Amino acid sequence: xxxxxxxxxxxxxxxxxxxxxxxxxxxxxxxxxxxxxxxxxxxxxxxxxxxxxxxxxxxxxxxxxxxxxxxxxxxxxxxxxxxxxxxxxxxxxxxxxxxxxxxxxxxxxxxxxxxxxxxxxx
Length: 122
Description:
Elements lengths: L9 E2 L3 E6 L7 E8 L3 E6 L8 E7 L7 E15 L2 E12 L2 H24 L1
């Protein structure tokens, strides 16, 4: 299968709290899997319909405060993680603090480069 993304996705630890356009009063918690300039992937215990618009708050130790944004669910796959069925979502950003995302990705890239240097020098 050919990669359709324009930008690389980077593995990331963190969480997200989502609300959907269908039920803005209900919060859904998820675990971040990866992030890129135009979107992110996360695992949820609850299914969200493909095509739905969501608002979210991203929480990661790579940024000093939550990143608030909006997006659209591009795909939903049911998978099994550690014996539990979860839903892997791909969300395309439609409104996000680009500088915050850039900062996170820069930190990830710096960490990857530092790790590669450590491996080379033994």
